[in-house]
Please model this.
Amino acid sequence: MGGSNENGDYGITVFKPGTPKSAKTRGIFFFIVFCVIILVQAFYWVFANKVLPIVLGMPFGMFFIVLFIAIEFVALVILYFLESSEDSEGGSI
Model:
């Protein structure tokens, strides 16, 4: 069948077979961190519903959004370098 794996059962495969436990833990950690960042950013109006103070020439609400976009970017760059260094150590596929 097209939708089944070797065992014959159905489901979603999150990690490739043979993925080390440290890589799985790191992947789950980054997933949770990104979920928290997105949830905090979605409810920014609770934390940053102010025009004053002006930070870097922007109202505080806009600064809050730009700050969280920058945090997401830095986290993705860190994850990219961790994944690329792991791929180079693992050999060819």
